[in-house]
Design goal:
The longest helix is centred in the middle third of the chain and has 36 residues, at 88-123. It is built from 14 helices and no strands. The protein has helices spanning 2-30, 35-40, 46-56, 62-74, 88-123, 128-142, 145-159, 175-209, 212-219, 224-253, 256-261, 267-277, 280-308, 311-314. The protein has 315 residues and is mainly alpha-helical.
């Protein structure tokens, strides 16, 4: 088991280094514009632009700039934004917890809704209850996020105004106010996400329920609820957990629509602001944190899955 975990950590570290190279090169070579030109302004002379570039270290070779940048990043120092003058680490510290919190609430809602419904639809295959559960979820999933988020916000504001608060409050300060702010955005993403988890749970459960050991359990008189929600669900969990780890990482970087609709100052919204301001220094830091969240989410799942199915370690 330790060797398995060590291999996963090494693989995650290698992927993170490769992604850091891509992110750095994208910020310095592929995106339009230049920090020195932006700071100098459109009327600056070539000498002024060159002086600013020298001050920022932009006149050095790309490998040298990358190594310097990586050295600071490993110390969790993302430098200072040349556009706003703020430390990028401080900005990330404000934005990242909001996106992580929203993604976590979303996955909790999607899991609580998706897994039981997946088991139910697998148990009622090709019956009215099967389509009666899956069809509304699939329709909800097909609706664009900006539409469902806006409609839900309107309905809550009109009919249940006390359920939602427009001002963000950290959970550590006032948990109740935090939940009032985060519940509706999490629902607007969590319900469509539950459709995917329901489908994955249903497909995996159908395979497990067709296995010989399930027939043996039924022949031995084990209650049907125990067969479905204990034996079969445990065997079906590995692919479900893998999907959830992937989706959690994807959610953190794809919540910008919801964050804009509900005025949440998270990473997704911050990335859009950085692109608009051409703040490449902050954009690199935000992209790196998003990549790290995706990798850590999948790494946690890689470690949890063998605890559910020990056969994975032996493969």
């Amino acid at each position: 088991m330790l060797a398995f975990i060590a291999k996963r950590f090494v693989g995650a570290a290698v992927i993170m280094v490769l992604l850091s190279v891509i992110i750095f090169m994208g910020g310095h070579s592929l995106l339009p514009g230049n920090e020195a030109n932006i700071l100098a302004g459109p009327k600056a002379t070539a000498a002024q632009v060159q002086a600013i570039a020298h001050h920022l270290g932009l006149d050095r070779s790309i490998p040298s700039q990358y190594l310097t940048w990586l050295t600071h990043v490993l110390r969790w120092d993302f430098g200072v934004s040349p556009v706003s003058g703020e430390r990028n680490t401080a900005v990330i510290a404000q934005q990242a917890p909001i996106s992580l919190e929203l993604a976590l609430y979303t996955m909790v809602i999607a899991t609580i809704v998706g897994i039981p419904l997946g088991v139910l639809t697998a148990s009622t295959k090709r019956r009215g209850a099967d389509w009666g559960v899956r069809l509304p979820l699939l329709v909800t999933f097909a609706i664009p996020g900006f539409v469902s988020g806006s409609v839900l916000l309107y309905l809550v504001a009109r009919y249940v105004p006390g359920l939602y608060s427009a001002s963000y409050t950290p959970f550590s300060e006032y948990p109740i106010y935090n939940l009032r702010m985060m519940l509706v955005p999490a629902l607007s993403v969590g319900i469509p996400t539950a459709a995917l988890i329901t489908q994955m749970t249903r497909s995996t459960m159908l395979e497990v329920l067709a296995q010989p050991h399930i027939a043996t359990a039924r022949a031995n008189g084990i209650p049907e609820w125990k067969i479905r929600y204990v034996y079969a669900l445990k065997a079906a969990l590995p692919p479900i957990l893998t999907l959830e780890g992937f989706m959690f990482g994807m959610l953190i970087g794809n919540l910008f629509i919801v964050e804009n609709i509900y005025s949440l100052p998270g990473l997704g919204r911050g990335v859009l602001d950085s692109i608009a301001n051409r703040d490449f220094s902050l954009l690199e830091a935000q992209a790196l944190v998003l990549a790290l969240a995706f990798i850590v989410g999948n790494l946690v799942v890689d470690i949890l899955v063998p605890l559910v199915d020990r056969r994975i370690v032996r493969r």
